[in-house]
Amino acid sequence: MVRKTLKGRVSLIAAVAALALTTAACGGNGGGATTTPPAGGTTSDSTEAGAPSGELTELAIVVAPLHYEPAYIAQREGIFEQHGLDVEIKRGQDPASLIAMLMSGEVQIATSSFIPLAASVIEGLPLKIIAGNGQVDPDFDNSGVMVAPDSGITEMSQLEGKTIGVTGINTGGSLPFMQRLEDSGVPIDALTQVVIPFAGMQAALEQGTVDAVFAVDQAYHQMLAAGYPSIASPTREVQTNMPVTVWIGQEPWLAENGEIIDAFVAAMAEADAIYMENDALAREVHAEINQVPVEEVTQNLVPISTEINVNPAERGLASAAHFGVIAEEITLDELLWEGVPLNTDVE
Predict the structure, then answer these.
(1) pTM beyond 0.85, yes or no
(2) With b meaning 16 or more CB within 10 Å and e meaning fewer, what string describes 102-133?
(3) Among residues 9, 17, 190, 244, which one has the fewest Cβ atoms lying within 10 Å of its Cβ?
(4) Could you give the domains of the chain?
(5) Do the strands 342-343 and 127-132 form a parallel or antiparallel pair, or are they unpaired?
(6) CB 271 within 8 A of CB 85
(7) Coil, strand or helix: which one is 253?
(8) What is the tens place of the pLDDT at every residue in 190-228?
């Protein structure tokens, strides 16, 4: 099998790398990313896109700790190879570290959280969205404002003057909470926010350190199972169908590798369709990557698509600017690379 390397690998510019690591995306170190070897096997005599017949183009990508299943499905099912790509998947951590890996040239394509990406572009990083990925599920709750069972708090309007635990103050993660609070008639400065990691939220409620917490994903489901009521589901209620994660690249590299981008997006579209249609396979891949029994994968797997839902995305950007999560207003068009699949039908 013949392999070739991508042209136009971008070298690390010290000032830009520093900006990537200090951007408003989300704090913390990336921690050593682990690598999954590229899929093996041989290619057919012809490929759909991305490389001449019989050749595979090497491509390194990094996935976030969520919404990664389709990438592994594409690797496992040989979809990348069918599109002429030999893909190495690296596992990343927080949004800032994912962007830093991209800016350093360690990877050519990265998963990014949508709102932190906008913050990074406003800061001056030459990043563009090449495709959508995870979206806010319109049918299932994966987050909630949780209170103690005996608190007497049953609705958001009762949080005025209270202390609320969040994982980050004025961040993309707390944005849906701020939106939902404002919708209930409570100004964001009418309560006190304190930073509490997800792992400490239940204990904080038990000890009375806070009156409510905004719990997400595993923390939310664990607290529900433990009998803690949810008085609102901000993410679903105010951000339904909004992009949560997207696939991104650096502009200099993107400009030189259009065929590779097209091949990658086409491969991911196929893998996304399999993920959406085969829940059992998606859960099997999730369990395999996390090295847990498949029966322990009980959470709802969110919708994933290469298409960007335009209307929810634009509302999310406007809200982020309104609450100061991003430094200034920015349009969706300013974030998109040419040819990004768009869906304008979803409201």
Answers:
(1) no
(2) bbbbbbbbbbbbbbbbbbbbbbebbbbbbbbb
(3) 190
(4) 2-137+241-343 (3.40.190.10), 143-239 (3.40.190.10)
(5) unpaired
(6) no
(7) helix
(8) 999 999 999 999 999 999 999 999 998 888 989 999 999
